[in-house]
Amino acid sequence: MEHAAGRTPAAKRGPGGVITIALVLGAAVGACKPEDAAQTSREEPRCVEILPGASPLRRMTRFEYNNTIRDLLGDDSAPADAFVIEEEALGFNNQAAALGVTQLLAEQLMKASEGIAERAVRDLERLFEGCEPAVQGADVCAAELIERLGKRAFRRPLTPAEVERFARLFAWGNDEHDLSTGVSVVIQAMLQSPHFLYRVEHGMPDPDARGVAPLSDHEIASRLSYLLWSSMPDDALFAAADAGELHTAEQIAAQARRLLEDPRARAAVANFHAQWLGLSHIDALNKDPAVYPRFREGLGSLLRAETEAFLDHVVFEDDAGDVATLLSAPYSLMNAELRAFYGLEAAGGTGAAGAFEVVPLDPSQRAGVLTHASLLSVHAKPDQSSPIHRGKFVRERLLCQTLPPPPADVDIQPPEVRPGVPTRRQFEQHAADPNCAGCHRLMDPIGFGFEHYDGIGLYREVDQGVPVDASGEIRGSRETDGHFDGAVELAHKLAQSDEVRSCVATQWFRFGYGRAEQAEDECSMAQIQEAFAESGYNIKELLVALTQTDAFRYRRAATEGREGREGREGSAP
């Protein structure tokens, strides 16, 4: 047992200084006082004990359900698209605390299992994998199917009691109806089990670590696959778990690197980016055609495709693959239609018109993902840009500071567009209103830096006939404070910020672990930050680092009371 594996008494520091609880856990701005946001603790993390933090039951999201059904049964019909949309917490839809089961969702899960089973039994020969009921007997073939499919559906070998229960269910369906019905009801029961819908983890007894349990190899395999693929383990990962080869940090890291080379990792990383950056809301964009005649139906999907292609290239193709490139790259990936939207010259060469290619951009106008029309459009209003939303995005998603909602008696409607009055001047009223000034002085000065981009992300030199003033300022951060002129300068400032790098790691922790960070996670976070820094802030190496922590490899030992509560919380139809 590796009690001290991967643990350091104090993480290495970057130019920004010590890693503190406030830094690794993110800051809540509270009452929007900059001096509060800048406060930090000077205590060093003490990584003596194994402190895994919470291990809540995690129900599959719709994205994970679709992927798992595809990999389990070859069904790519995306049945979870019909499920109710998940509640979001911390900006993500996979947070365990928000993933309950309503009566409506329970019914949808039941109906989905029926449809999936019906499609699966149309090819019994493939399901039985060479076992012929007419030769070996229906019960024999069913027993083999139950063992094999159940292990993959539950991400662990079935218990004898579970095997017996599914065998009785098959026998009833087969005897009362036919072979297909027997197999169908088994599949339905598996897909409605909490052991399929949830990642149920008990850990293994460990007499040397009081109150802490190392996860089993199969539980580690499941954590790996859902972190990096948003789906179930593949055969190689199951084989490693069966052989007890997911016990050490090195074994887990080797599997993590293998999984990152699979195309499924790209889809999972894209899902994180879509939620982190707000791209998941782009399909609902609504713009005033009188103000933005170049906006059309379907443009949001095209803009999202650009950002997804760019992020995929940065993480998986770019030699650096780091946070700085993500935030300040002087290029994007576009096809002919996107070039036309941005007003760029058509590409030379013989590439297909719809193909996405690396396109160098004017470095005085564009830098990295922050100047993509997708983000700028999402964080804007139907008829104007929005310094508030753009500043809030930087504050919460890149600096990990949470702003409180506005007071109930404050009018949150944006000012109306007035001819001859630029957006900046209209929003500067917040600085004079005492009910608004506290929070808006943290958001608006950042958002003003994006004023060279209109409500659909196109570059402009003038707004309402007035030259754009894109000067801005960051206030109340820990070490990123200061003036800047325009989003390009802001992007380069953020790209070199230790505070931003720390926040990126924190956002991945929240998304990857499905929960908020806690005080017990201090050492795990310090370990992640150290590995991230040593890699040059490489995103893929950050994902590997997430698999090496106490929080990933262990769980609190379940007491009898807690185990009972978790069982009830994890119950499903």
From TrEMBL:
<dbReference type="InterPro" id="IPR013039">
    <property type="entry name" value="DUF1588"/>
</dbReference>
<dbReference type="InterPro" id="IPR013036">
    <property type="entry name" value="DUF1587"/>
</dbReference>
<dbReference type="Pfam" id="PF07637">
    <property type="entry name" value="PSD5"/>
</dbReference>
<protein>
    <submittedName>
        <fullName>Uncharacterized protein</fullName>
    </submittedName>
</protein>
<feature type="domain" description="DUF1585">
    <location>
        <begin position="483"/>
        <end position="552"/>
    </location>
</feature>
<dbReference type="InterPro" id="IPR013043">
    <property type="entry name" value="DUF1595"/>
</dbReference>
<feature type="domain" description="DUF1595">
    <location>
        <begin position="141"/>
        <end position="201"/>
    </location>
</feature>
<dbReference type="InterPro" id="IPR011478">
    <property type="entry name" value="DUF1585"/>
</dbReference>
<feature type="domain" description="DUF1592">
    <location>
        <begin position="215"/>
        <end position="344"/>
    </location>
</feature>
<dbReference type="Pfam" id="PF07624">
    <property type="entry name" value="PSD2"/>
</dbReference>
<dbReference type="InterPro" id="IPR013042">
    <property type="entry name" value="DUF1592"/>
</dbReference>
<dbReference type="Pfam" id="PF07626">
    <property type="entry name" value="PSD3"/>
</dbReference>
<dbReference type="Pfam" id="PF07627">
    <property type="entry name" value="PSCyt3"/>
</dbReference>
<feature type="domain" description="DUF1588">
    <location>
        <begin position="366"/>
        <end position="462"/>
    </location>
</feature>
<dbReference type="Pfam" id="PF07631">
    <property type="entry name" value="PSD4"/>
</dbReference>
<feature type="domain" description="DUF1587">
    <location>
        <begin position="58"/>
        <end position="121"/>
    </location>
</feature>
